[in-house]
Amino acid sequence: MAVDWIGFSYAAAIAFGGFMGYKRKGSVMSLMAGLVFGGLSAYGAYNISNDSKDIKVSLLASGVLSVVMGMRYKKSGKLMPAGIMSGLSLLMVFRLLLLTLA
Are 31 and 22 in contact (CB under 8 A)? Predict the structure, then answer.
């Protein structure tokens, strides 16, 4: 049973990003989204730690976040935070798809 450190780090980055959005801009929506998606990603990383083929929750969370933040990046053109989070989420989607092939 190998621990999915990459998945847990990704979940922590999402939660931390939501917290920073709340702290800097006072955005409660950013805090809630960060906690919800960070929690889902952490749960998905826990599932992957127990069974490396159980990627459903992680794939759903990172896929939705990739699309939503990608649209925000396209609309605003700002690299921080939308561009970075959409890129990280897209990398996570690719990683999860590669896990199913291995």
Answer: yes
Backbone angles phi, psi at 89, to 5 degrees: -65, -40
Where are the alpha helices (H) located in 1-102, listed in sequence order?
Answer: 5-25, 28-50, 56-76, 84-101
**pTM of this prediction?**
0.92
Total Cβ atoms within 10 A of residue 87: 15
Using CB atoms within 10 A of its CB, is residue 11 exposed (0-12), middle (13-18) or buried (19+)?
buried
DSSP letter assigned to residue 53: T
Residue type, 102: A
pLDDT computed for residue 1 by the predictor: 63
Query: In angstroms, rounded to a whole number, what is the distance separating the alpha carbons of residues 5 and 91?
Result: 15
Query: How far apart (Å, rounded) are the C-alpha atoms in residues 17 and 10?
Result: 11
